Amino acid sequence: MNNKLQFDYYIGIDIGGTRTRVARFSDNFKLEKKSVIETPLYEKNPKELLEEISNKIQDLKKSNLKFAIGISAPGPCDTKMGIVKNPPNLPGWGEVRVSEFFKDKFDTHVCLENDANAAALAEYKIGSGKGYKNIVYFTLSTGIGGGIIINGKIYRGFEDSAGEFGHQIVLLNGPKCRCGSKGCLEAVSSGYAISRDALSKTLVRKSGILYEIYKKNGTIKAQDVFLASSQGDDISWKILNKAITYMGIGISNVITVFSPECVVLGGGLTNQEYIIDEIRNFVTTHVKMAPINKIKIVKSSLGDGSSLYGSILNIIELQ
Amino acid sequence: MNNKLQFDYYIGIDIGGTRTRVARFSDNFKLEKKSVIETPLYEKNPKELLEEISNKIQDLKKSNLKFAIGISAPGPCDTKMGIVKNPPNLPGWGEVRVSEFFKDKFDTHVCLENDANAAALAEYKIGSGKGYKNIVYFTLSTGIGGGIIINGKIYRGFEDSAGEFGHQIVLLNGPKCRCGSKGCLEAVSSGYAISRDALSKTLVRKSGILYEIYKKNGTIKAQDVFLASSQGDDISWKILNKAITYMGIGISNVITVFSPECVVLGGGLTNQEYIIDEIRNFVTTHVKMAPINKIKIVKSSLGDGSSLYGSILNIIELQ
């Protein structure tokens, strides 16, 4: 990759619901040093989180060298104005002028991107989607999000709102989604949905592996359901089977509409390798109009670092 | 629109399952003269249809003036090579090298486009989608198809297969689709699906308005179901209600994924004006992530001429 810019190094910031990462990258995008902040410590206090990020940047800064700042944050974002807008994943934030804050603080170039778009860009530039022209990226995690790269550029859509793959309706009159609609992919197939279904079924059944987990921890996480399923728990298997089938539908539909050359799957749920195999099986048998046998369905190679990498790779894209 | 090309006029050809249109357009894209061929007269004889089209072109030609030929045809098409590839809507065609045929015949510039893409382009350039940057076009007819315009250009996807909106899966384990999959939007909400459901229900019920139509005509068309519904037939209303609800899902999902500024609805089913109102109501209440109140949902203004216009407008796009 050519770096034709006038910056000596880059600072990347990935604001997440659980963790916020701040890192320094060389002028050719190698990670040099990283700090992690527990985001919930600053819940409902975005300004304090931004101050803490600034402290980390001060520690990472190299004196007398020119740097730019790239930020990725949960959507929705106004990327042109650099504003994070009431993200469901950051409760109590409201609208926060993130770019302006860092511009004022460090008097340098700052750019903001939605985290799923940033991840898609990183996978396209240096990850599993490298070498293709049009790719889509799915994050399958507590929520389900996505990003679209067309001709090597992030496709943002009207008011930065494209790529909300988790909010396709896959089940008419299905479970309520946190977006306010019903039967969205996220409400049926996400880590949150798996955990919700496991909890409600377990509280009725009051026996079995999941109930033991519930008694111990007071809750059931998606990863508990994977574990129970691998130990032969029938209810867990059914919950996962339903979730993965609808994931297959959501991913098939994006392929049918977009016909990308490559689909990159990231997010915590893909740590269960068999999910990717199941999705690949589903789309291969259900997608008929796109050349499905030539379309690559691959796991993210950057893992949970994809948005952080994307935040700085986005700087050169936007110049 | 500027016409900076070296052609004095254009010939547009729109090959359809029912009718094929051949027309002459001025250098500034005004329709001058049009001929219509009944396509089924040449069923399974694509070469004979192409010969008949050539005869029409001979009649339309102006001596000593330079012209180009634009063709729209049912997909799938290889637009680069100018090949129509086993279109389900033209039974018995196989692969036909349409562009080569007319190039050899008239020794001029020829370009081919999928009919839904051509229609989308025409709506973007001179129809209901004029003035927007990113639009999607749905054709709601016997089948359901679509086209995508991004930054004013047709988005074709991998091997020209993008925009197959009718083959999103909207109903898990739903009715078989002619594409080979199950529960596709086309298998649930198209004119074909409405007609199929009406027929199967009527043959069980053996009474009512639809049964009278069936006895008279030996079949039930989608337009019969609209008529019966308007006359208070309860079964017709239920069939249409289901079809339109799933249309709402399919269109909502494309909006959620793409976030276009404008959705243009064309095809025979949109002649029932209330369908557009129903779809608008559905998407307004179900799409939460895109700025749905700012996104225009409008009827095609070019009607069944959109693909024909698109065929010639595509010539200047591709140069």
Short précis:
Two copies of one chain form a homodimer. The first copy, chain A, is of the alpha/beta class.
Written description of the protein model:
Two copies of one chain form a homodimer. The first copy, chain A, is α/β, with parallel strands linked by helices and 319 residues long. Chain A folds into two domains: 9-121 and 305-318, Nucleotidyltransferase, domain 5 (2-Layer Sandwich); 129-301, Nucleotidyltransferase, domain 5, CATH 3.30.420. Helix content of chain A is 39%, strand content 21%. Chain A contains ten helices and 13 strands. Chain A has helices at residues 46-60, 98-106, 115-126, 185-189, 191-205, 209-217, 222-230, 234-258, 273-286, 306-318, and strands spanning 9-15, 19-26, 31-38, 67-73, 77-78, 83-85, 95-97, 110-114, 135-140, 144-150, 153-154, 262-266, 296-299. A five-stranded mixed sheet of chain A has the order 3-2-1-4-8, with helices on both faces. In chain A, helix 3 (115-126) packs across helix 10, helix 5 (191-205) crosses helix 7 (222-230) and helix 5 (191-205) packs antiparallel against helix 8. Chain A is globular, with a radius of gyration of 20 Å. In chain A, 53% of the residues are buried. The model of chain A has no long low-confidence stretch (mean pLDDT 95).
